[in-house]
Structures are given as C-alpha cells and as structure tokens.
Design goal:
By secondary structure, the protein is α+β, with helices and mostly antiparallel strands. It has a single domain, classed as Roll (Ubiquitin-like (UB roll)), CATH 3.10.20. 20% of the residues lie in helices and 31% in strands. Strand 3 and strand 4 form a beta hairpin. It comes from Xanthomonas indica.
Length: 84
C-alpha cells in the first residue's frame, strides 16, 4: 500500500512516498522513512488526527510528524492578551 510521510517544520520540509505491506503501522512508516527527526515516542498524526504508533495504516494515508510545542497555547494567548 502507498502512504506518505510528511515533516513540515519551519526550518525543514520533507515528503516521502512509501510502499508498505498491508497491516503496516505508524511506527513502521516512520522506521521506513528513516528521518533523523523521527524519534521514539514522537507525536504523529494521520491526516491531522493524533495517532498512536500502533495505529494501522490504510492505502493513501498521510503520516505527519508533529513538532514539540515551545509553549502551552493557553499561556501564549494569555501573554498576547496581557496589557502592555
């Protein structure tokens, strides 16, 4: 089955199309992509929905590597709204 692995960070963009056997998981796709940024336990998504490494993939799925949050979104909003 064909799937796509995408890393879209501000400093780097990578898109790889892979042929994997039926029954492949998100972890299998990351291992096959062999991206240095893909570390064990790294958060991933399939079409924007957070996915566990054990999630089974389907034909045409897009696996996205999620970058770590630099700041909690709630804290960021509070800082922007704080009077200056």
């Amino acid at each position: 089955m064909r799937i796509e692995v995408v890393l879209a960070w501000p400093e780097r963009f990578v898109s790889q199309r892979l042929d994997l056997p039926e029954g492949a998981t998100v972890a299998d796709a990351l291992a096959a992509a062999a991206l240095p940024e893909a570390t064990p336990g790294m958060p991933c998504a399939v079409y924007g929905e957070v996915a566990a490494p054990t999630r089974l993939l389907q034909e045409g799925d897009r696996v996205e590597l999620l970058r770590p949050l630099l700041i909690d979104p709630k804290d960021a909003r509070r800082r922007r709204a704080k009077p200056r």
